[in-house]
Amino acid sequence: MRRLVVGCGYVGTRVAEAWRSSGDEVFAVTRSAERAETFAERGWRPIVADVTRPESLADLPEVECVLHAVGYDRSAGPSQREVYVDGLGHLLAALPSSVRRFVHVSSTSVYGQSDGSVVDETSPCEPQRDSGVVCRDAEQLVWQRFPATDSTAAPAATVIRLAGIYGPDRLLRRAEALRSGEPIGGEPEAWLNLIHVEDAAAVVRVAADADTARGRTYLVCDDQPVTRRDYFSQLAELVGTSPPTFDASTGARHGAGGLNKRCSNRRVRDELGFEPRFPTIAEGLPDAIERSAG
Known about the structure:
single chain, alpha/beta
C-alpha cells in the first residue's frame, strides 16, 4: 500500500518505519531538506512541505492511506491554531482523490474534566485550555471532510486521542529534576493518563487498516491511570534518586487546577483488540529508561 505520513515525530516516525518494514511504500512530509535526506536513507520517499504553507502541498502523491500526526514546534513561529487547525485544513483540501483512509492523531486534552472522574469517547469534550480547544476544533475538521457513513466504499477517517506519551528519551528532563531535588510543581494527587510510544504507534497501525475503525474515535491510554506522586516516586526509584517533593502552589502541565481525569481504554480494547505491551508504568518506565540515550 502507498501511505503518507504527515508529522514524522515521536509517534509518526515509528509508524513510518513499521509500514516500510512491512513492504509498504511510505511517503513522509518534512519541513527540513536535511531531514528529507535522512528519510530517503531510511527508504521513505521524502516530501519537503509545510502544512502552514498550502502551496507546498500542491502535488501530494497518490496514496491510499494518510497519517496526520503533526506536533507543535514552538520555535517554528506559527501558533498552535495555525498548525493544528489551519494546517490540517490545508492538508485536507490538498488530499488526492486516491485517499481511502485518514488517521488523525489528537489528544485527551479535548476533555475538560478535572474532578478525577472517568472519561471515555462518549464523555463531553469541553476543554478548559486553549490547547484542548485547538485539538477539538481540529477533530471537527476531520469529520467535516470525512463524515461517518455506512458505506465501506467511501473514504473514512479515524481519530486517535492519545494520552500523555512517554518512552525512550522522553524522561531525561524529569530525571534530572529529580536528581537535583527540584520540587515538582502541581497537585501530587492529580491523575496522569499515559501511553508508551510503542503502544501508541501500534494502535495507529491497526486503526489505519481495520474496518471497525472507520468513522470511529479512540481514546488511547494504558490500563491504569496513576497519580503524579506515584509516577514520580517510581521514576525516582528507577533512576536512583531520593523520593520526589512537590510544590502544589505552582502550576504543572498535568493536573494543575484540579485532579485531572481518568481515561478509559475500553473501546480500543474491545473494537481493535488492543493489548498494550506496556499496560502500566511498572512495565513501561523500566523499558523507557533502559532504551534512553545516556
